[in-house]
Design brief:
By secondary structure, the chain is α+β, with helices and mostly antiparallel strands. The chain contains twelve helices and eight strands. The protein has a domain of 99 residues. Helices cover 43% and strands 13% of the residues. The strands form two sheets. Strands 5-4-8-7-6 form a five-stranded antiparallel β-sheet, with helices on one face. A hairpin with a 2-residue loop joins β1 and β2. The two termini are 27 Å apart. The mean pLDDT is 92. Bound molecules: zinc ion.
């Protein structure tokens, strides 16, 4: 989207809200987010389903409803995410707390993950929607292992449900699978159809005495996706495999949209119902 068009959208909260509503309700016809019944009763700014009694606003049960931000600030935040502004800078620019900026960025990443090919599987396996909405510090119940596939200029960062930490340790200990590390992220030489496996090291290297001294891995010779990732990983500091998962789904999305304008795509993702 051209900057002058974007400026019109954020020129007032009303214009921003109208734009978001167009994506939430394409023909402006409301239905119940719970049971999809079309007969609803209007109650001031809310509506009540005439079948199941669910009371909802225009944004209920959608990703953007997870963080309290005005419609115009949501659009500004999407723009700042698009240009990769830091959470500190976003908080400063929008005059919101650092925690709100962080939470909103997590919601954008979750919406990206939800709309990726293996999104439905990841959401149900890790119950990500509930996990991220909860007040506690979210932790995944298992360490996800990802596999990189490059095909016709596109990258797929696939979650490998059948490939657990045990399989990874087995490959390291019994087949000397070469690997290296950037921060806490381990990447490997090719396995099956994957250019590399990716895993967040939450202490397994120490526990199982695994070394990551590989040299000239196939991924190091990659001239497209890996340089794109590597320069971004320098600013990526996390202590959880959940953030690792969300961040790599973001990188997959950013890479595949690297020559496209993805502002509207992100707005569409944020206005979808949580799956
Ligand atoms: Zn209903």
């Amino acid at each position: 989207m051209l900057l002058k068009e974007y400026e019109k959208l954020v020129s007032s909260p009303q214009k921003a809200e109208k734009f978001l509503l167009k994506h939430c309700w394409p023909n402006y016809q409301r239905f119940c987010p719970q049971c999809h019944f079309r007969k609803v009763q209007k109650l001031n700014s809310k509506r009540k389903c005439k079948r199941c009694g669910f009371v909802f606003t225009d944004f209920s049960q959608r990703y953007l409803d997870c963080v309290r931000l005005s419609p115009d600030n949501w659009l500004r935040l999407v723009k700042l995410f698009e240009i990769e502004a830091s959470p500190d800078n976003i908080a400063l620019q929008l005059d919101i707390s650092y925690n709100t900026a962080r939470k909103a960025l997590t919601i954008i990443r979750l919406a990206i993950l939800a709309n990726s090919l293996d999104g439905p599987l990841l959401l149900s396996l890790f119950q990500l929607n509930d996990l991220i909405s909860s007040q506690k510090t979210p932790q995944l119940n298992q360490v996800p292992i990802l596999g990189i596939i490059e095909e016709a200029g596109h990258i797929f960062v696939d979650f490998l449900p059948e490939f657990g930490v045990d399989s990874f340790i087995h490959l390291k200990q019994n087949f000397c699978l070469p690997s290296k590390k950037i921060g806490q992220i381990i990447y490997t030489s090719p396995v099956k159809q994957y250019l590399s496996l990716l895993i967040y090291d939450q202490g397994i290297s120490k526990r199982f005495n695994l070394s990551h001294q590989g040299e000239n891995l196939t991924l190091d010779g990659n001239k497209s996706f890996w340089p794109f990732v590597k320069k971004r990983l320098q600013n990526f500091k996390t202590t959880s495999s959940l953030n690792f998962l969300l961040y790599f789904k973001e990188l997959e999305f950013r890479y595949n949209y690297r020559q496209k304008d993805f502002f509207i795509t992100l707005v569409k993702y944020l206005t979808t119902f949580k799956k």
